[in-house]
Amino acid sequence: MSSENPSPSGHASHIRQRQRPAIRANSQVSSLQIMFAVVLAVGLLLTVNFSARIAQGRPLQEAYELVQLEIAQLETEQADLLAERDYSLSDFYVENWARGRGKMIRPGDKLFVPIPSRDSATPYTRPVRDG
Question: What is the pTM of this model?
């Protein structure tokens, strides 16, 4: 019966015991909230830092792609120039140039140089200098 009707001092100690766990629970929740806030802040800082690095990397990536494109164009140009060089060093090209532009002949060949007719040619007049 004494447990059913607690004494006034027993009732007060029972209330104190209930209040203490409530205070402990509030302080634990508060420390958990602080830890969560710290973790959230660190995560936010890392996210902002990572985002800034990505933003800084975009112009570098664009420049890299432009350089790669220029390299591909230059490699194509180099291949064309090497092919032209190899062709100009070939015996076939040298002989064609010598017979055409160089006006050279082989022994036994005859060189014919066409001369325009006088009717179609415009007359050349020598400029007169003063003085």
Answer: 0.42
How far apart are the C-alpha atoms of 19 and 17, rounded to whole Å? 5
DSSP state, residue 5:
S
Number of other residues whose CB lies within 10 A of the CB of residue 93: 13
For residue 112, tell me if it sits in a domain: no
Residue 122: inside a domain:
no
Q: Is the dihedral of CA 92, 97, 102, 105 positive or negative?
A: positive
The DSSP-derived string for 75-121 is: HHHHHHHHHHHHHHTSHHHHHHHHHHTS----TT---------TTTS
Evaluate whether residue 18 is within a structural domain.
yes
Q: Which residues lie below 8 Å from residue 113, measured CB to CB, with a gap of 6+?
A: 103
Structural domain that includes position 68: 8-100
The total number of structural domains in the chain stands at 1
User: Do the domain assignments include residue 127?
Assistant: no
- Alpha-carbon span 26 to 22, nearest angstrom: 6
Q: What is the pLDDT of residues 62-101, one digit of tens each?
A: 999 999 999 999 999 999 999 999 999 999 998 888 888 8
